[in-house]
Amino acid sequence: MKKVAIVAGSISRFDNPRHTLQEEMVAESVKAILDDVPNLDLGSFIKNDGAACYSYFSDILEQQQCMHWIIHDYLGLSAVPAYRVESGGATPIDAVINAALWIRSGKFKMVLVSGWEKMNELHIQKINEAIAIAGDTDWDFVSGFTYNAFYATLEARRMHVFGDTEEDLAEVAVLNHNNALDNPYSQWLARHGSSKISVEDVYKSRLISYPYRLLECAMTSEGASSLLLADEETARKLTDTPIWITGVGFGTDTMRPGDRPDNPAWKGLFPEEENTWPDNIPRPMSPYPDLVNFGSFKVAARMAYKDAGIKDPRREIDFVEIFDPYAGVVIAGLEDMDFCKRGEGKTMIREGVIEPHGELPCQLSGALTAQGHAVGATSIAQVVDVYWQLSQQIGKKWGAPGRQLSNPKRGLIQGHGGTGCQAGVTILEV
Amino acid sequence: MPKQPEPEKIVKEVEYDKKWWDEWVRKGGWRPEGYKIIELEDGPSLNELTPQKFMIAHRPHANMFHHSYGKVSKFFEGLLEGRLLGTKCPKCGLTYCPPRAHCFNPKCRLQETEWIELPKRGTVHSYTIMAIAWPALAHMQPLVGAMVRIEGTNTCLPMLMKDIDPEKVNIDLKVNIHIAEKPKGDLLDVYGTPAEEPRGPKRTEEELKRFRADMELTREWVRRKFGSK
After folding, report:
1. Rounded to whole angstroms, what are the CA distances from B25 to A61, A121, A124, A344, B62?
2. Does B126 lie at the interface with A, CB-CB under 8 angstroms?
3. Rounded distance between C-alpha atoms, residue A100 and residue A82, angstroms
4. How much of chain B exceeds pLDDT 90, in percent?
5. What is Dmax (Cα atoms) for chain A?
6. pLDDT higher than 90, residue B63
7. Residue A221 CB-half CA count within 13 A
8. Inter-helix orientation angle A147-162/A328-336, to 10°
């Protein structure tokens, strides 16, 4: 099995609106990679076993199918093997995983991964609709629930079963937004400026769907991001500081969250998680994940840990980027990815473990609620953020050397789509 | 000898207004209805902004889907008759609403399910209060949405709740399920009402105060937008 290196990574910033076309934003991000890697010749891809893997979520947001064909020739890559990966919000993480597996298999020596989204063309209600129809349009979407509403029911149940509080959610939102204030690719910084926010500011933001408020929900963004992956031999020719993708994993759960409580496919799969079900709450047939946790995250994370030889993720991983369209996903995600026991995610928030100077810094980029959520670019950008930290480039790329972690060795990026219908995890190492 | 299927026969039809569609599809045909030219700073990072000019065309696009409910059409036919139907696996007994034509228990090897009539009773598995709902429902904000486990089923059906104070809705609340008097043939025909005194979740005094202020702001917006309610 070939080792997989990240040779370079870049972001064309997240904002809304940007009014710049998808191909132009992608070109900006690929141009940044070409600047970073002077020996890279896109014209030699076809002869040197190069390929491209593209990531965008929606054909509906601009009513354009096969957008990646436009992108591909715009970059001058005609004839180069390529295809698009699509799986809702998990699209960009799955594109990275797909590209890594291509290289591991020996099929390709280098792969350009580019992702993008434009989310400003439609009226906001139609944007919400375009996102919501990633839910079941016969049985979920038409019940009157927006996507916000479905995630809100998941968190309301967590509050009932494991005692997450409104303050825990607000604290996650504060962490994300304040983390983004040095990030020149962040939509929050572009829109809001660089003043810090507090829990009170989160409470003052409008209610969207109880318990979620505006600042606890992802933004809709436009932007692009790219990564150049390569096998070891190729990577050594292109860079002196490769960062390695040592673990990848992906998992799934039901399309409809309502189908999760009594699902025979989950029953008995993670008995230790089922045992944490509180005695005073009626016990569903499959207590893990129910609507309380994200089983797909666990399957993805355990697969990636096995891949990377990680036994104790809390100790062996230095920092984490979680795909958090809603604040509660961070709390549940920490549990599902074995950073704490089930039900104890809130304790990690309360004890400051995930703060920038905590034991396990999370969401250093600002993540989806503050860096932004240009869906097809989101997780690729989070991988880039982790790559820049591991390769000591935050000072150069952000112009904020104070935000460079001291000597980080290993980072984890998690992504997912739907209501946790699909998830992916990648582990990066120096 | 393989047989050619008989041509489709219409058993019952509620037609949509073709005139309305004809007008809509002509208007929704991509030709710009207007445009604007704007100046905006842009660049790959906030450290690299330069002035730019963009033209934005207002380009309409219309759709009408002729959507089949497939082999679970019977559920929606049931709604038209005021009945709540689900499916049950004859092998393992798993009971579905939303119905599935095939059992998803891996042991049952995609066994075909059987139709059963369900009681119009259930329990709230989880809930939310929507301060922002779909445009067609905005006049009803704040809207209580509940994932309801219908009695005897192994699933939850999302539905809106009526006749309940948003502050009082709680997990495990027993609910009655109703079907609209004039059903249109989708899930919005189904709604719940409390079947017992709702208790509400535990909230601190501060949380309750904030919740009530949120509800008041939401209602105030509805009054402003749609008049008194």
Report:
1. 19, 19, 22, 54, 6
2. yes
3. 14
4. 89
5. 64
6. no
7. 36
8. 60
**Contact (CB<8Å) B134/A157:** no
pLDDT band at B191 (very low <50, low <70, confident <90, very high): very high
Nearest to B78 by CA among B152, B154, B180: B180
Q: Token match 């141009």: residue?
A: A31
Dihedral Cα A120, A324, A178, A171, nearest 10 deg: 130
Q: Measured between alpha carbons, how far is residue A247 from residues A47, A55, A97, A310, A426 in Å?
A: 28, 20, 9, 9, 6
Residue B119, classed as helix, strand or coil, is coil
- Tell me whether residues B43 and A142 touch, CB distance under 8 A: no
Evaluate if residue A96 carries a pLDDT over 80.
yes
In a 3-state reduction of DSSP, which class is residue A18?
coil
Enumerate the residues of chain A whose CB falls inside 8 A of the CB of residue B109.
none
Q: Enumerate residues 130 to 189 of chain B having a beta carbon within 8 A of any beta carbon in chain A.
A: 130-135, 137, 143, 145-147, 149, 154-160, 166, 171-172, 186-188
A370-394, pLDDT tens digit by residue? 999 999 999 999 999 999 999 999 9
State the virtual CA torsion across A249, A255, A259, A261 in degrees, nearest 10: 30
Whether the Cβ atoms of residue A219 and residue B143 lie closer than 8 Å to each other: no
Chosen for mutation from A29, A62, A153, A154 (greatest number of chain B CBs closer than 10 Å) is: A153
Q: B222 in contact with A at a CB cutoff of 8 Å?
A: no
In sign, the C-alpha dihedral spanning B198, B199, B202, B208 is positive
* Average pLDDT taken over every residue of chain A: 97
Mutate to test the interface with B, among A19, A210, A216, A280 (most CBs of B within 10 A): A210
Tell me whether residues B98 and A157 touch, CB distance under 8 A. Answer: no
pLDDT of residue B28: 85
| Nearest-angstrom CA–CA distance, A423 and A301 | 9
Structure ipTM = 0.95
Banded pLDDT at B26 (limits 50, 70, 90) = confident
**Chains A and B: how many Cβ contacts under 8 Å?**
174
The Cα of B5 is separated from the nearest Cα of chain A by a number of Å equal to 27
Q: Is A216 helix (H, G, I), strand (E, B) or coil?
A: helix
A-chain residue closest to B56, CA distance: A19
pLDDT at A408: 98
pLDDT at A193: 96
From A84's Cα to the closest Cα of chain B, the distance in A is 23
Cβ proximity of A375 and A57 under 8 Å: yes
* pTM attached to this predicted model: 0.97
**Are the beta carbons of A229 and A5 closer than 8 angstroms?**
yes
